C-alpha cells in the first residue's frame, strides 16, 4: 500500500542495507544504499536529513570496500554541512559533521 517511493519504504530499504553491512556483506549493502540514496534524493531532496544519513552510510560502505574514488564525491557533498548554520542541522547531521575529519582522513590515506 505504501509503494516503493514512500519514505517508510525507503527507511526499510536503508535498514536492510545496514543489516547487510553489519552481517558482513558490504557489496549487497552498497547496492541497497545506492538505491535508497537515489530515491531519497528524488523524493526528499538532496539536503534532507534522511538523505544525508543514507549518503554517509554509503560512504562508510564504500570505504569498507576500498572504493575511495566512489566515496570521495559523496564525502565532498557531506562537507557542505560545514557551511550551514549549525542551528539548522538535525542531531544526526551534527553527528555526521563530527565524523567528517576521520572520513576525510580515510580518503586521503588511500
Mind sketching the topology for me?
Layout: H1 7-22, H2 26-44, H3 49-64, H4 68-79, H5 91-109
Characterise this structure.
The chain is mainly α. 75% of the residues lie in helices and 0% in strands. The longest helix is centred in the first third of the chain and has 19 residues, at 26-44. The protein starts with 6 loop residues before the first helix and ends with a helix.
State the gist of this model:
By secondary structure, this protein is mainly alpha-helical. It has helices at residues 7-22, 26-44, 49-64, 68-79, 91-109. The model has no long low-confidence stretch (mean pLDDT 94).
| Overall average pLDDT | 94
Shape: globular
Element-level helix/strand string: HHHHH
The fraction of residues in strands falls at under 5%
The assigned structural class equals: mainly alpha
What percent of the residues sit in helical stretches (DSSP H or I)?
over 70%
**Strand segment count:** 0
Distance between the termini: 45 Å
Total helix count? Answer: 5
Low-confidence stretches: none
**Biggest sheet, in brief?**
none
Q: What does the oligomeric state look like here?
A: single chain
Radius of gyration over alpha carbons? 14 Å
